[in-house]
Write a structure and sequence with these properties.
The complex is a heterodimer of chains A (379) and B (237). Chain A contains 11 helices and 10 strands. The relative contact order of chain A is 0.11. In chain A, strand 4 and strand 5 form a beta hairpin. Chain A is globular, with a radius of gyration of 21 Å. In chain B, strand 4 and strand 5 form a beta hairpin. By secondary structure, chain B is mainly alpha-helical. In chain B, 62% of the residues lie in helices and 11% in strands. Chain B has 7 helices and 5 strands; from the N terminus they run αβββββαααααα. In chain B, the strands form 2 sheets. Chain B has a 3-stranded antiparallel β-sheet with strand order 3-4-5, with no helix packed on it. Chain B has a two-stranded antiparallel sheet with strand order 1-2. The chains are: A alpha+beta (379), B mainly alpha (237). The interface between A and B is medium-sized, with 24 and 18 residues.
């Protein structure tokens, strides 16, 4: 039997996240977008309200949410500002490899403190010459006694300037190997904040590792496990990324709807023009479709099923829907959609990254086709 | 260092603005920052700068203003006194503060550098000139306040604007601070009439000098804010 309704607990979480978004995120979105500052005050409040680190297991001090619950919350946060939502949520991307492959000691040392006070962590995998093709990472980890010495450059690292530790994918003896690296390790150089097209509140930097000594106790899994750990993480996090895109779509739809219902043109409300009303109908339908794909991918993960295809479908589709919705929102607002005083243009800038990060749209399609090739029929 | 001070001042100003204005948005036409609470029960307001009639609604925490109309007719008296009058207090007050500052520095240096005596002999003139500037500045601010209220009644049709409310409150505050500064300065208890300097041997004179300085600095903050807010109502962003 199918049930599309939210449980009482989920409804409460959504309402809490929505209230937080309306009070803390949306009113400050334009300011953080303009200044590009890291929204530390909002993160502090999000931490206080229990909206950060939703993946940390209870035995390490967390109050774990299912991936579906997390998607519902993240969708609300991103409706206020996807850049700020990314700053709040980016910990999850680096925490999950530890949850997936960390020892009890690693979890205690690195996840536990994140539930006690506001701390950040970052997923450092991408390199200047290794984006979608993660297998090309060149950062080396040379074994020296009981330690490893890391050398390399990680690029576009979200929360890179504020992180207390990094999940780092390297090559140890040519085998992909992952480490947890404390950010205060000597030899780590954090670059300046990148000025990106959108999501200005999100902190993205270059992190350079110069002879950074890491204890073997901080290695995740065995040498050679790194690629699997890094990739498996995405099955968990991609529904969340899709939710962020859905948040943008929801913001675009609501702004366009509010505007179209009040703006007058040719002696009638804007929404009375079929050309405009059809845009809104298409936006809401696409949003529903993107949400259901997202929720299904999350639900499959929570059931313990393989969700790689569904997560890729959700991430690709939701990203495209968000981009389209943001552009249509600006179109509905006309000239006002093109000005920086109205929220539409920011949505366009923010939406674009969803088609690129955590696996570009083309990579998602490769994953989907890869799965299709292994089955005879689609039911 | 300077950028840190600027950041701190900006943060304090932002916090104050948040308290006084509440949630704000920018007029999509002239970019003036407007307070959401100034919209009427139907979410309507007229931008005090460009005159567009805005219907503002909060959507998921985002302020979405819609331009419905433009108020073309805005009362424009031939002689608007307020914009002219406002420059007199704003122009004179900083010089009064500078005068007091110079006199305080001179009071400290006088015993240390006896060679300055011929120069310091002119201190009573500086003290008197400072008093004149203070009196003119604060006195004419009454005209500024009155003409501002007249403008609010006629040009802005007595509509509620946080900016104007802030200007009224700060104008009254400036009058109070100015009156205190004048009283202290004119009393002769701070700057002795004979020397024009503070008698550092008298604890009372030192305390009153500090009080006058603090009052004047507070007055500077108030009048700077008034000038900034007033300027934004004329020139927008």
């Amino acid at each position: 039997m199918m049930d599309f309704s939210l449980s009482h607990d989920q409804q409460e979480q959504v309402e809490k996240a929505r209230a937080f978004t309306k009070e803390w995120i949306a009113p400050k979105a334009a300011e953080y977008d303009r200044t590009g500052e890291f929204p530390l005050d909002i993160c502090r409040e999000a931490f206080k309200q229990g909206l950060m680190n939703p993946h940390v297991p209870a035995e390490y001090g967390g109050t774990p949410h299912t991936v579906l619950d997390h998607c519902l919350v993240l969708e609300e946060l991103a409706t206020g500002c996807s850049g700020i939502a990314t700053a709040i949520d980016a910990n999850g991307l680096s925490q999950y490899p530890v949850i997936l492959a960390g020892t009890d000691d690693q979890k205690r040392r690195f996840l536990g403190p994140m539930t006690e006070s506001l701390k950040f962590s970052a997923y450092a995998v991408t390199e200047p010459e290794a984006g979608s093709d993660v297998s090309r990472v060149k950062t080396t980890a040379a074994r020296v006694g009981n330690d490893y010495v890391l050398n390399g450059i990680k690029w576009w690292i979200t929360n890179g300037s504020v992180a207390d530790w990094y999940f780092v994918l390297t090559r140890a003896d040519e085998k992909p190997t992952a480490f947890i690296v404390p950010a205060d390790s000597p030899g780590i150089i954090r670059g300046p904040k990148e000025i990106n097209l959108g999501q200005h509140a999100s902190n993205t930097v270059r992190v350079t590792f110069e002879d950074v000594k890491v204890s073997a106790d901080n290695r995740l899994g065995e040498e050679g496990d790194g690629f699997q750990i890094a990739m498996k993480t995405f099955d968990h996090t991609r529904p969340g990324v899709a939710s962020g895109a859905n948040g943008i779509t929801k913001a675009a739809l609501n702004i366009a709807l509010s505007y179209a219902k009040r703006r007058r043109t040719f002696d009638k409300k804007l929404i009375s023009n079929q050309g405009i009303s059809f845009k809104l109908a298409e936006m809401v339908t696409r949003l529903d479709a993107a949400k259901y794909l997202t929720y299904k991918a999350a639900w499959l993960f929570d059931r313990g099923d393989d969700n790689a295809r569904e997560a890729a479908e959700a991430k690709w589709f939701a990203a495209d829907v968000a981009m389209q919705a943001a552009i249509e929102c600006a179109q509905v607002l006309g000239g006002y959609g093109f000005t920086t005083e109205m929220p539409a243009e920011k949505l366009i800038r923010d939406a674009k990254i969803y088609q690129i990060y955590e696996g570009a749209t083309e990579i998602q399609k490769m994953i989907i086709v890869g799965k299709l090739m292994r089955i005879k029929e689609v039911h | 260092m300077i950028s840190d001070v600027r950041k701190l001042v900006a943060k304090v100003a932002e916090r104050f603005k948040g308290r006084f204005y509440g949630r704000t948005f920018r007029c999509p036409v002239c970019h003036l920052e407007l307070a959401m609470v100034d919209a009427d029960g139907n979410g309507l307001m007229v931008c005090p700068l460009c005159g567009v009639v805005l219907d503002v609604e909060e959507v998921y925490g985002h302020a979405v203003p819609v331009v419905l109309e433009v108020e073309l007719y805005r009362p424009q008296p031939k002689m608007r006194i307020h914009p002219l009058a406002t420059h007199v207090p704003i122009g004179l007050f900083p010089f009064a503060v500078l005068g007091v500052g110079l006199l305080l520095v001179a009071s400290v240096l006088a015993p240390l550098l006896p060679g300055l005596a011929p120069l310091l002999a002119k201190a009573p003139v500086v003290a008197s000139a400072t008093l004149v500037m203070l009196v003119l500045s604060v006195g004419l601010s009454v005209v500024t306040l009155g003409s501002g209220l007249w403008d609010w009644n006629h040009r802005y049709r007595r509509r509620p604007y946080r900016q104007i409310r802030l200007k009224i409150v700060f104008s009254v505050l400036f009058l109070v601070l100015g009156a205190v500064a004048i009283a202290l300065h004119a009393s002769g208890a701070v700057f002795a009439a004979s020397t024009g300097l503070v008698d550092l041997a008298s604890p009372l004179a030192v305390i009153l000098a500090a009080a006058e300085l603090v009052t004047l600095i507070a007055g500077m903050v108030v009048i700077s804010t008034l000038g900034h807010v007033g300027g934004s109502l004329v020139f927008g962003r």
